[in-house]
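WARN retry 2 of 3 for item q-0093 after timeout on previous attempt; input resubmitted unchanged.
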Amino acid sequence: MGGSYILGIDIGGTKSAVLVGKPNGDIVYRLGEETRASERTPFEILDRLAEMAKEALVKVGITLSAVMGVGISCGGPLDSKTGVVYSPPNLPGWTAIPVKAHLEKALGVPVIVENDANATALAEWIFGAGRGAKNIVFMTMGTGIGAGLILDGRLYRGTNDLGGEIGHHTILLNGPVCNCGKRGCLEALASGPAIARLARESMMYGRHKRVLSLAGGNPSDITAKHVVEAAKEGDPFGVQILEEAGTYMGVGIANVIQMLNPERV
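OK item q-0093 returned
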């Protein structure tokens, strides 16, 4: 396999990113934009990511001939062998989308598709906080919540690439509905959208003025970012919302520790 650079593409429910990197983990160039999954078809998004990859290569001053391969991180469920993505909760309309085949045709280089939490677990294990450990759990906390598992020195994917879907274990039996269809999942209680939903639902208590102001006065525009910004300013309402989400996240992580006994999270 020729080339001395690697392309990395992250397909997220809210944002997507492309980077040019080296095999040693050094990032040479990165760019990102909103995914807009509700506005664009899966193939429109993939085509845009291919364009962004080419734009990034131009910025670095290299061509695709210098790229040894492309690594795709995407929320599951997916098949890491075939590179087909199957209906991730945070990517509406992505039903049996052949990501690997589509991008290999668009870019002309080998493509590997991996669950986003698994990909970041591998990165932390090789380059970051997980170095030197045999058993680690890497938690993702964004539009969704998941985990990548390194167990006995190997990435654990599970039987059908569904290992580590910790965001969908139930914390509150009659809790809010999750995008996966179940109630009370960790993801429905502590993810970015969950924090925003909790802030909007708690506005009736009348202590939400700073969060609402940051959202431009429109309750429907409140995001987790506004809650975090308010909390950083010391706003009691923002702090309370983050404490509640953090408590649920703590319960979820404690459950994982009890089940897997990792060295690090």
